[in-house]
Amino acid sequence: MNKLLLGIDLGTASSKGVLTTPDGEIVATAVRPRPHSMSMPVPGWAEVDAERVWWDDVVSLAAELVPQAAGSTISAMCVSGVGPCLLLTDDDARPVRPAILYGIDMRATEEIAQLDEQLGTAEVLQRCGTPLTTQAVGPKARWVARNEPEVWQRATRWFNSSSFVVFHLTGEYVLDHHTASQCVPLYDIEANVWFDPWYDEVMGSLAPPRLVWPAEVVGSVTARAAEETGLPQGTPVCAGTVDAWAEAFSGGVRTPGDLMLMYGSTMFFVQELTDLARHPQLWNTMGIDPGSKCLAAGMSTSGSLTGWVQELVGDVPFETLVKEAAAVPAGSDGLLVLPYFAGERTPIFDHRARGVIVGLTLRHSRGHVFRAVYEGIAFGIRQILELLDTETNPVERLVAVGGGTQGSLWTQVVSDVTGRRQEVPEQTIGASYGDALMAAIGSGLVTPETDWARVAQVVEPNPEVRSLYDELYGLYSSLYPATREHAHALARIQELSP
């Protein structure tokens, strides 16, 4: 009987599943788009109903994929998801409030400042390898404790998206080391353990989950989960991790010097390191392979911003907008976009930053605006690459993954703006493919060093537009400081709006 692996990824705008063979051949795929599942009840907040979105998507994807394994055995499965998130539950994993999402939820800025003062900014960076930012879980937990005390008192456990699903599948209360390393200031990144003094201070009586590595088998599908999902009872389940790292894994980003650039709803970066590289504007994390270390960064908008333009101009087909943008010359005829339409994470970490479109004239068309959005995101990528690429940890190979790589214009603009060569893998299904590989490794069907990634396309920068983009990059770099006070004033007005 043939052996198959099941990978499921819970993304921001959709969930995906894949069945593969142990050598990486795709047998079946399934997608569950859900563009309106994220709730933003207050500007700067981002929440999800964990049961109606995360668990229901797993049930739905399993119901479609399991029958396609007929005649074969699902030897193991693994789930990744958005993160780091904070989902508070009772002992039976029943949520006591919606899950608070990763760095795009910026509610806990006061708590970040308080914890920095209480614990020490330098001490947090040294202990956790990462500063306290909107990406961190600890400040969000403190926000709930301060602002929703009745909810906090009912909570006994906490989860990320993937660990919530693992509990539902197996009854095991675990969290992978990578996700834990993003739960600043709870995790000691050198010792790879919860740092008890700070954990107790921030999380109080919430029980700490058992720490495991992402590809580690942590349990098996229970009878109850089998009945709900159709998965065979006893199927081994790996711990899983945050989607961006599963996607990097799927693209073969495994060696120091490799860097993943993920073209998704947000733009995300994962760089494999030789050793930790503490930086106040970046995130040090553990990786997928046991003991591996990464440096990461993230922008708050990318694909979501192109979707906003599409909606703004009247739901014109995306292919039409790309075609019109491709006809516009490099530099968008003097149009420049600051892509901070949902605040920004790296490199400024400013939840009150706002989007700017400068240089507009009556000559500019929707194609100009669309191309300028691509270019604005690319300038933001260039800023972050300059932080990541150091003498100690140089960026030697850039791997482009995610849905945004499927058209040629966006990746070409990024290569032209940054001057960087990009490799696009053959399989672009993303994190769920990396999950299937983790399941293969965790179940012992393949060796730990197995890599399924194959390069399908190489994007080379066009040297003819480099000088123009260099000039525009200088203007881009000065645009945020020049407009920051105006953006903050407008953000305060927006926060007061009903």
Shape: globular
The helicity comes to 25-40%
**Span between N and C termini?**
60 Å
| Average pLDDT over all residues | 95
Oligomer class: single chain
Kindly provide the name of the CATH class of the largest domain: Alpha Beta
Please state the CA-atom Rg, rounded to the nearest Å: 22 Å
**CATH H-level homologous superfamily name of the largest domain:** ATPase, nucleotide binding domain
Identify the strand order in the major beta sheet: 17-18-16-15-21
Q: What is CATH's topology name of the largest domain?
A: Nucleotidyltransferase, domain 5
Main β-sheet: number of strands, strand sense, barrel status?
Answer: 5 strands, mixed
The total domain count is 2
Number of helices, where a helix is a run of at least 4 consecutive DSSP H or I residues: 16
Beta strand count = 23
Low-pLDDT segments: none
Structural category: alpha+beta
Which strand-content bin applies to the residues? Answer: 15-25%
The CATH architecture classification of the largest domain is 2-Layer Sandwich
Verbal overview:
- The chain is of the alpha+beta class.
- It has 2 domains: 2-244, Nucleotidyltransferase, domain 5 (2-Layer Sandwich); 252-426 and 462-498, Nucleotidyltransferase, domain 5 (2-Layer Sandwich), CATH 3.30.420.40.
- It has helices at 50-65, 109-119, 121-128, 138-147, 149-154, 161-170, 177-181, 196-203, 223-229, 243-250, 303-312, 318-327, 366-388, 408-418, 431-442, 466-496, and strands at residues 2-10, 14-20, 26-33, 47-48, 72-81, 87-89, 99-100, 157-159, 174-176, 187-188, 193-194, 210-212, 217-220, 236-238, 258-263, 267-273, 283-286, 293-299, 336-338, 356-358, 397-401, 422-425, 455-459.
- The chain has a 5-stranded mixed sheet with strand order 17-18-16-15-21, sandwiched between helices. A 4-stranded mixed sheet has the order 3-2-1-5, sandwiched between helices.
- Helix 10 packs across helix 15 and helix 11 (303-312) packs antiparallel against helix 13 (366-388).
- The longest helix is centred in the last third of the chain and has 31 residues, at 466-496.
